[in-house]
Amino acid sequence: MELQLLFKKASVLRERPSRIVDMLREPRPIVRGGPLANRLGLQVARVLADHAAWTLRARPDVEPAMRAPLEELSSEGVLVVRDFLLDHEFAAVRAEFEETRTSPHWLARFRSTQFGENFVAEGLYASDYASEFPALMKSFRDNVFLQKLASAVCRRRMTYKPHVEVFHVHKPDPDAPHIDLDYNQYIHADRHYPFIKAFYYLADVDEDTAPYTYVPRSHRLSFERLRYEYLSSLQTAKSRAGRYRRTEEQLAKDREIQRVSAEFLERLHAIERPIVAPANTLIVSNNQGFHRRGEMRGKRPRSTINLDFKYLESHAQWMYPVLKHLYR
Ligand SMILES: O=C(O)CCC(=O)C(=O)O
Q: What domains, with CATH codes, occur in the chain?
């Protein structure tokens, strides 16, 4: 099985050498080690070490126009920009999205994840076909505003451009009930160090259309957060193996971690904020903070463009001077 996987990776690399960058783009995991190491405080040590390194890195010197959005992101952990694109840019992005959802050529290229009965997420990395999505590339992959925010929050220099994912969450039968087994429905933090993700609404999102939900100010490091890291690491170290298998058994383990998160947020008196907003809204969040996908009670799908900048914390980052020659 492992050999098969290796063979598959090798053939991908032969076709497209730049893929080596993608393989190295995964950053430090949320938890390392087993239950014993974490009972002895491994996770707390990792959090403190990463925080110290971040504090020691130079603060970015941003131009005056970036100061207010960066200040908002630094203090709240989340930034919401309505009317992000100009009308003609939005129309071009929307047209490319429509093309992906109507043409059999693109529909066949979406990667589909069954979140549960009658509940599906479909993702397409438009940046893998950059020349066929010029509007998406210009508005998102090459967006300097996003790149500067990403770099400033991590305090890392900008290197590679992000992948641009068209993401579509829906109920194949909108009138039938659905079951959600996906762990992103639970409030969680992606990592214990700062980095950003961006979510752009392609259509209006109301409270019943699975709004992206964030807990403002939950990204800050505090004694309570260290306590959370300690307790959640014990749970994660136990249950990590099956995290991506969406079964009732795994869901029960997720609920355990969720209990630790809920207790942490209660101690902070923190309140989650579902981001209900019209089409053409961009959300940028520091995903060291707590967030989740809200409930899909309505019938309409939720369509977003997603970008994830955590690769700035990966091995690919320090290898950039070499790997940039491969990366197109
Ligand atoms: O799709 C969403 O609204 C939530 C996504 C999420 O939780 C994540 O990317 O970690």
A: 2-323 (2.60.120.620)
